Description:
- InterPro entries: Glutamate-rich_WD_repeat (IPR051972), Histone-bd_RBBP4-like_N (IPR022052), WD40/YVTN_repeat-like_dom_sf (IPR015943), WD40_PAC1 (IPR020472), WD40_repeat_CS (IPR019775), WD40_repeat_dom_sf (IPR036322), WD40_rpt (IPR001680).
- By secondary structure, the chain is mainly beta.
- The chain is built from seven helices and 29 strands.
- Helix 3 crosses helix 4.
Amino acid sequence: MPFCIPGRHAMDEDGDPGPPAPEQEDAPMEDAEEDEEGEDAEEDTPAGPSEVFLPGRQLEEDEELVVDESAYVMFHQAHTGDPCLSFDVVRDRLGDNRTEYPLTMYMVAGTQADKAHKNSVIVMKMSNIQRNKKSKEKDSDDEESDESDDEEEEDLPDLETATMKHHGCVNRIRATTIQDTPLAATWSETGSVHVWSLARPLAAVDDPMVASAYARDSEDKKAKPLFTFKGHQQEGFAMDWSPLKAGVLATGDCGRHIHVWQPAEGGTWHVDQRPYSAHKGSVEDIQWSPSEPTVFASCSVDKSIRIWDSRAAPAKACMLQVTDAHDSDVNVISWNRTDPFIVSGGDDGKLCVWDLRSLQSGKPVALFKHHSAPVTTVEWHPSDSTVFASGGADDQVVQWDLAVERDDEAAAEGAAEGAEEDQKLNELPPQLLFIHQGQEDVKELHWHPQATGCLLSTAHSGFNVFRTISV
Length: 471
């Protein structure tokens, strides 16, 4: 079950400073909605002390964690059967900067089934995504209780899916749009990279009539990719579509090679057979520059981050590099959309923020060591240039805000009062806004680019979709 630590600088829905960070009770989430018998029993039992849970603390035998629902504007879960360890948000035509509920979101994900032939690309539509309800006192009137139950059923989100067969586990999947045609690229464990049209499955999740026909037509589920590249010598994970030049794609493999794709006529691609190969180990992630159409960044298990210019010959295209960006593998990077910053996460559990104007100094402008296991995902907020989110193998999704500074006076007062809980909270980086937990082995997260403040994350235990009071 999910649980969280809201940050000390929580914001309410309108962006104004919110109430003090709510606390968590040492009670299981399943007990949050107790029956009347449980409530009666609770009246005779003194309530135990509540406190904020900090990751790393060992729970006592009689303690369990419960989600503090007041810390979320919205929170929902979704499951797809086989785990989908990579996904992407599909942009829609419902408008940008959406804050009105209920929300609708579209996603595309790839499965990691136990057998290669059982894998699929799954297109999902999540609709009727409601805000969290404010707590209400239960009414003893049975009729009113029945009405309340009916309302709760109506408030549950709807999930529509359409699948396409995919040979091999999907290592990574990324979506884009070319001339109003929605596409997705997939990295297969077989070593091939495919490009798929999402037009038909998206129509299926939108229209019940199309969905019925789609379900009957096995050819839809066995749709062939528009294009396949088999030039990589090994499987890989690194992949990114250019945000500035439609159809331009970069893919990197575990054999240290990167290939750049250019769209060609007839819905195909020309892939340069000359690889970018300055890395000395597996290429783990790639990010195109949001401001320069020929520039992209990559990171690797060789501990380095490199900046490339695709106008140069591949052998000479590496323009900047940090050779020891982390103490071990650099797993993920994200390029800030408005400022010249890249944030990276590694196997060392560190998050480093790099200023491209001083990259060659080899020193990050900010470094956070909060995660207690490898960082597996990181992404800047799509519109707030100081906010990013990270996730890792320590089962945490963390929201950060670089604009927040420590209030030394308040920290000193807390230390003087000697409150153990306050002292522990003061040990956290002041830029840490919120910790969301409850998923097992977080693999990937994305901010929704059109639904303000909404985060989506996937793990072995399924998807979480939420918005916190902090962002």
